[in-house]
Amino acid sequence: MENKVGDEMYSMIRTLYPICRSITGDGVRTTLAEISHHIDINIVEVATGTQVFDWVVPKEWNIRDAYVISPQGEKIIDFKASNLHVLNYSVPINKTISLDELRKHIYTLPDQPEWIPYRTSYYNETWGFCMAHNDYLKLEEGSYEVVIDSDLSAGSLSYGEFFIQGESDDEVLISCHICHPSLCNDNLSGIALSTQLAQQLQGRKLKYSYRFLFIPGTIGSITWLSRNQEKISKIKHGLVVVCVGDEGQFHYKKSKSGDAYIDRAVENVLNHSGHDFGLIDFYPYGYDERQYCSPGINLDVGSLSRSSHGQYDEYHTSKDDLALVSEQALSESLTCYLDVVDVLENDQCYMNLSPMCEPQLGKRGLYRKLGASEGRAFGEMALLWVLNMSDGKTSLLDISNRSGLAFPEIKNAALALKQAELLQ
Amino acid sequence: MENKVGDEMYSMIRTLYPICRSITGDGVRTTLAEISHHIDINIVEVATGTQVFDWVVPKEWNIRDAYVISPQGEKIIDFKASNLHVLNYSVPINKTISLDELRKHIYTLPDQPEWIPYRTSYYNETWGFCMAHNDYLKLEEGSYEVVIDSDLSAGSLSYGEFFIQGESDDEVLISCHICHPSLCNDNLSGIALSTQLAQQLQGRKLKYSYRFLFIPGTIGSITWLSRNQEKISKIKHGLVVVCVGDEGQFHYKKSKSGDAYIDRAVENVLNHSGHDFGLIDFYPYGYDERQYCSPGINLDVGSLSRSSHGQYDEYHTSKDDLALVSEQALSESLTCYLDVVDVLENDQCYMNLSPMCEPQLGKRGLYRKLGASEGRAFGEMALLWVLNMSDGKTSLLDISNRSGLAFPEIKNAALALKQAELLQ
Amino acid sequence: MENKVGDEMYSMIRTLYPICRSITGDGVRTTLAEISHHIDINIVEVATGTQVFDWVVPKEWNIRDAYVISPQGEKIIDFKASNLHVLNYSVPINKTISLDELRKHIYTLPDQPEWIPYRTSYYNETWGFCMAHNDYLKLEEGSYEVVIDSDLSAGSLSYGEFFIQGESDDEVLISCHICHPSLCNDNLSGIALSTQLAQQLQGRKLKYSYRFLFIPGTIGSITWLSRNQEKISKIKHGLVVVCVGDEGQFHYKKSKSGDAYIDRAVENVLNHSGHDFGLIDFYPYGYDERQYCSPGINLDVGSLSRSSHGQYDEYHTSKDDLALVSEQALSESLTCYLDVVDVLENDQCYMNLSPMCEPQLGKRGLYRKLGASEGRAFGEMALLWVLNMSDGKTSLLDISNRSGLAFPEIKNAALALKQAELLQ
Question: What pTM was estimated for this model as a whole?
């Protein structure tokens, strides 16, 4: 009850954690099915071979088992223990090879010798295993049996979409990637937060429409954009939801323009969040903001996360696990996202109806009674800021930014002034 | 003789200090009469009940005496000892009450237990006393006789106005509030400096016209603006003169736009003043700049002070007394105001008449004789800056700001170049 | 072989060092003749008395010998030992005078008592000697024989010009002053670097045309500008080459506008040079940029140097000698100039031909094979930046500045993408 939404998000992550996802295949489908238990997403399948802009939807990858048996007959690598052990998108293999040959197909992290790295090879057909460097060092000369029981064949790419119609057709895009296997922060946290956010917005009276995309990274956003080009221009603001479950400092990676409305809204929220945070200028790497901000798409999409892309030790390793994320961190992140929605939904430009000097707040019950008392309630400063700046062109977000007062306080002051018929 | 103007301003403060002023009443009239001994101000009376924008001119307040007599028959609070003892604008009262009842009407400063606070209740009819917290703690149970011999009745609001016609009808507004009782820095210092400034400008050949307002805070500026709407658009620049007598660091509170001409002029002067100073972004609180910068008035008015509004310990207490202000501080403040006037009066855009490369200064007697000597008089740099930047669009103030050379030096260089027919 | 160009530049400085140059006369002609051994400059003579804008070409100065003989018959000052001993442009004199009279004509540096200062008196006809302050203190009472065997008479001002025609008539101006006598950093270093730069650009396929001016300071640039007014508008960017031989930190003095293209190009190069550097805002003093940036000329000309004008102890003294400059420093400076030329020549705006999301780099052999490896080659980031920013309006220099990647890397990425037909 203390942190019900945090618990719900964490619980969803725990459910999704064991599944071996990739950019295509049944792992993605199982994940989308789980999301469907919370919100009524539309699940879309796009056939292998479909041209999507400069790309082609790849073959579908499915895997049942994978292992390596040592010369001593011991199963030293086992997909069933961790799906990170297999190079994601490995082609099937079943043969006995020398240690030298095996070594060419093994990935480790010498600097983190107990951790299994996460590696992929989507567009180059090969096979491989990932393992702890300490285990790698123990490998002895001899013949190894290597088995990857996978398929790489025609099928389809799967993604989920959830749409909430608001008063306006102008859209806010919320996008998260769903292609990573057993990695909690990157990006089961994003899936859980997006799902929770959709649940909370569903049924609310909203100004904007909200589009949630649950897609495999890169090829998923390219596929959606390619097949929904008529919808692109409706997207006014967007956020890529990633790495929102760890306890690291908040980070906001700005949109390409750097001063888009979404950038100013998120910065305002973070400024008043009580959390330390870092601002990161756009760079054409990271997650799907790369596609949304490509020159032909050019959407105002940023990314609000805790630890940012590649900037935490556990990134893309077996330590990005259930211990790295917490109910508390997820819940704080959700609050930030909801506060951003509050700005998007409630920001507007008012006109002061009594613009010649200050109106007399006292006769309207809006003024402290003693003219020279020392404690000045912030409420009064918010009233004065809103009155002073409301010229029909300056928005509440602008007023919040200039005054240094939090958006909700400015919003509340505006509502009180509207009620007193001082604002329109 | 050393600091004649400082002495004059301090002497005026000493004369005005004992008077019990408020936003209306005879205290204001006596103050205006004293100002009249120095400059020929026009004194205006506006009747109680007059509508001024959203406000109404309030009843006039006058007070003759006030005191509290203890159960032991001792006069423990006495208006005659300090007019701050009475809640400003208190309604009349004359009765005997319990200590509990008395306490509800007493204001103290627990953090500064020896000081009397200054409190007002202009628009809420009540009564009260202010006292040192240490004295408050000594109050014993029993019956107290409380007397406030005041009137709150129809009358008028008084203010003073002084106008100097310059060559142009464009005006510079100099505004100070005159409503505070025995408080020296806030704002007898402002009254004294404005008076002295008016005396010094009177009779000078001036480009701008100068309008000096001596008004009660808030209601005074609202009244003047409301009744002089046709004059508002003539005001091109303005300064609110407050807290200019203490020895605190200079502060300039910018106009609403933040980069108005007056803002750049004052910043330039402070940069070269030799004093440390702080710049304060506009906020819709403080003094009458709140009204001048309201959205329907929107004048370029800032405020140049020493310690700024509310930012010194003695603010609105009995310690804002004759010891807090000094001849030296007043005189330094006046110098800054005069330097700002110097910029306003003398700034202009010149055109270099010999713009193809540098003109030969030597043949015009404007160049040091030895081409490679090491000591470079600043005078020469000022000449070179003025020549380099004078394209008919760049003003002397711009040149001073870019070069880092003081405005007077740039002005003098321009005059020398004009004499040499190199500038127009 | 290690530093062939550094050796060549140093060797040229050594050859030019003994010559007594001034703003006119045979010293300049001998210097131009030496430059002619390296590049085929056009040598121009402009007659004494010629009007050049506000100035007149002065009389020509030549000197054969100068000395002072002490009462003891000793030659205590000797032009043949150092040409700095004579006040540059001294009129001839041959007489015996008292010590008191002699002192009025002697210049020393009391703070650097072993160094001879460099002094001039171009536009005020007088005579004088410069000497070490310690020697000055040893002068005894008595009669001194002073001899300056010089001419100041009608002749001409000499300068050199070298032009390389590029594809475009748009010009880059490279300007250095040649009027200083035995001073190495100021400005034999500039002469040597300009000459070497001209040699290296000559014969290259170039987008811009390059104009090199070897001119006496001030009067030389004024003369060239005055007599080539129709060419001024062709000059798009320019650099004044001075003090490029000492080991001091790099400095770039910006053009008058401060954000001209040349300013951004030089700052970009310095940012990636691996050297510390300082940026200096334009001021109307220093070298010939004063003339190029005068309001009627208004060219985008900055100045890239090591130690900047007047900011090193040896400036304008006998210690600005062959020990102050080095092959290494000259060579580093040349590299910076060549890098600036690389930007000017190769910067352009490309258009991404596959702007809808990222193109698939892998199928074009432009992508690392493993999608999630941790080491990210900068090469890939350069590709992504160029693709993301190439909208036909954003230049490679802009992309380099925004990405923080060096211009050559961005340029190479663009070439690879152009080859892959992803860029136009």
Answer: 0.93
